[in-house]
Amino acid sequence: MEQKMMDAIIKHVDGEGLALARVPIPEPGPGEVQIKIHKTAICGTDVHIYQWNEWSRQHVHVGQTIGHEYVGEISALGDGVTGLKIGQKVSGEGHITCGHCRNCHTGNIQWCKDTVSVGVDRDGAFAEYLVIPERNLILIDDDLDEDVVSFFDAFGNATHTALQWLLPGEDVLITGAGPIGIIAAGICRYAGARRIVITDMNEYRLSLARKMGVDRAVNPLTTDLPALMKELGLKEGFDVGLEMSGAGAAFKQMLSVMRNGGKISLLGLGNGPIQLDMNEIIGRGLTLQGIYGRKMDNWHQMAYMVQGGLDLTPVITHRFHYTEFQKGFDAMISGNSGKVVLDWTSPAPTK
Ligand code: NAD
Ligand code: ZN
Q1: In the chain, what's the furthest Cα-to-Cα distance?
Q2: Scanning 52, 137, 145, 291, which has the fewest C-beta atoms within 10 Å of its C-beta?
Q3: How many CB atoms lie within 10 A of CB 4?
Q4: What sign has the CA pseudo-torsion 192, 90, 132, 62?
Q5: Model confidence at 19: pLDDT above 80
Q6: How far is the CA of 177 from the centre of ligand 1 (A)?
């Protein structure tokens, strides 16, 4: 029988770049679901794979389909899958976990030691069809905007990081106004934070963050943070810190302006070791929490926040047809972007 083929964005060379290719449509095995992709969003991880940095060379194999932020509909069910219907709107948790370890058993799938990542360790969602295990499937209510759902995966990282702590009335510092930092700012506002300050050196991104309702979006190199805190009425320091840049300098700056007893969650992935004065953490009683991936409950929280009025559309800065994916990656690489959404169902634009 002739194999049915589809379009996919693949890592085609052992070097920089990605290509559109014809690859076989994946069929769902037992316990798996096939998804017809509607929209996808580009993540910083996809940009790393595009640029072919050391990390991606170790994880991704040449020929693989990439991408892990998506929304679509169920198009086929594997043997033994029950309770789901063709046509249901879905997204999916991108971390496929073992299901048997202590963390999986306690609902902390984000800490499974045997995680396999969609679009990194196995074929991903930048394709007309994707196959994932049934238990990774997330049902999506029809009233949710598909452009926003396309980046629920990243929204999940922001939700996990921000909702780690009680936020009502708290003063929050977010370091890094990348898409995830900006989304986190929106969550903090929605969840009732008092003051929200976000830092970045990229003016384009600071202006996007202002659209999400932050009190101040500032360049940490040119802004005197203690003076700004005074102006905003902060007496003892920030109560909550969300580190979303991965920059050691940003984390050190955060430590210097936290209230004694403050809480910090760390999402940004650093480039290597940094030097710290441990006494800044110990003597001031700070709590630090590393954040990896999302909790399954975050998917429910995200849908409810959007249905409750959290508007994330300002984060979307570019929309392209998938055949124009190069323009999307160019926008991401320029730094002058928020989320870039690719459309997989509309007809390709005529040149
Ligand atoms: P991004 O790279 O688009 O944004 C990071 C931002 O930090 C950039 O805009 C950059 O200009 C800014 N920045 C750099 N140095 C800074 C400094 N000293 N002070 C303030 N800002 C500074 O990344 P993103 O997609 O928004 O993701 C945020 C971070 O989270 C990244 O580090 C990413 O690798 C990481 N991440 C982690 C997980 C996880 O599971 N832990 C998941 C997704 C993303
Ligand atoms: Zn596990």
Answers
A1: 72
A2: 145
A3: 9
A4: negative
A5: yes
A6: 7
